[in-house]
Amino acid sequence: MKVLVVGANGQIGKHLVSFIQDSDKLKAKAMIRKQEQASYFENLGAETAVVDLEGDIDTIAKACEDVDAMVFTAGSGPHTGKDKTIMVDLDGAVKTVEAAKKAGVKRYVMISSFDTSREAIQAAPSSFAPYVAAKHYADEWLKRTDLDYTIIHPGLLTNDEGTGQVEAASKVERGEIPREDVASVIVASLENDSTIRKEFQIVTGTTPVKDAVKSI
After folding, report:
1. Rounded-to-integer distance, Cα 76 and Cα 87, Å
2. Fewer CB near the last or first residue (10 Å), C or N of the chain?
3. What stretches of 37-149 show up as alpha helix (H) in DSSP?
4. Strand pairing partners for 2?
């Protein structure tokens, strides 16, 4: 299975491409914004596609033409304004969903926020609410398609070394999780069809990643 990683140059994305390239079942195609980012992924043996997520759906769909699955790991980041939150975390996500449909890519994994419920939007601080709202509507858009989607809701992301152990369920207590472990969960989800058309939260726990994903 060839997987297009959207947001490959991000912190989760880099871990993910590396893990995919180490997998016997998967191959990565890294979607990046700048050509100068390509060498990192080419050194891993991964293909690259230089595509701006703020571009049009047709351009994104062209990058999808030779892949079997798409993973959305992109994000506007904590230091951008509400405009980028809308254009990347909402519109960018929706465009990748539409591009997948257009290119006939059925399998889609979305990295969302920990809680994107209507209640979470209302409860979020004013500075964070636009991000939660963007993720809420991107998730809802995906769920209304016929794609074989999986939506992963990670806890507070850290740059700690991965433990390889998580807690995964439709609802878990808030907690932290290393980005490296999120990438491991994505790989396990791609390799396990039982996660199709499901969404779940993940935090650091005591269950090996593959076992936790199988239990979903």
Report:
1. 8
2. N
3. 38-42, 57-64, 82-84, 91-103, 118-123, 129-143
4. 27
**CA–CA gap between residue 185 and residue 31 (Å, rounded):** 20
pLDDT value of position 78: 54
Cβ atoms of 44 and 33 closer than 8 Å = no
Decide: 25 and 8 in contact? Cβ < 8 Å.
no
Nearest to 98 by CA among 88, 108, 83: 108
CATH of the domain at 25: 3.40.50.720
Q: Which two tokens stand for residue 103?
A: 């290119």
The single residue listed with the structure tokens 């490296």 is: 180
Active-site positions?
A: 131
Classified as helix, coil or strand, 2 is: strand
Confidence band for 84, pLDDT divided at 50, 70 and 90: confident
pTM beyond 0.70:
yes
Domain that holds residue 98: 2-214
Over residues 173-179, mean pLDDT: 98
Please count the structural domains in the chain.
Answer: 1
- Residue-wise pLDDT for 121-149, tens only, equals 999 999 899 999 999 999 999 999 999 99
CA–CA gap between residue 129 and residue 123 (Å, rounded): 8
Contacts for 60 with CB less than 8 Å, ≥ 6 apart: 31, 51, 53, 95, 96, 99
> How far is the C-alpha of 8 from the C-alpha of 14, rounded, in Å?
6
Take residue 68 and report the two structure tokens written for it.
Answer: 């079997």
Distance CA 213, CA 194 (A): 8
State both tokens at 187: 């790989």
